[in-house]
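Protein: MOSC domain-containing protein
Species: Salmonella enterica
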Amino acid sequence: MATLSRLFIHPVKSMRGIGLTHALADISGLAFDRIFMVTEPDGTFITARQFPQMVRFTPSPLHDGLHLTAPDGSSALVRFTDFTPQDAPTEVWGNHFTARVAPTAINQWLSGFFSRDVQLRWVGPQLTR
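Structure follows.
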């Protein structure tokens, strides 16, 4: 018999995980796990392997979006309704799907920590991967 000793979700792929005592699971996995990601403007995801500072961001899932706290203590809030309604081509490890892009202000804020243009993306209300 397997024993589960610790449970974590990572709302934003490659950012700091959140320890849980319980979680909701559905056909796609644990609720709020890796439903956001940081990508290049062309939709290619980036990871903490390339940008180790990613693990110093603290994501906090909200019922209507995401609150991000940066390593310098600044923070940003983005609601699901703020993301573009159009799905944009996105790629993670050769897996192609669509995701919604965060508003320009959020992406500019994030880009300042990466010294390059990046975008926050959300998989959307219906998974396409």
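Remarks: The longest strand covers residues 95-101.
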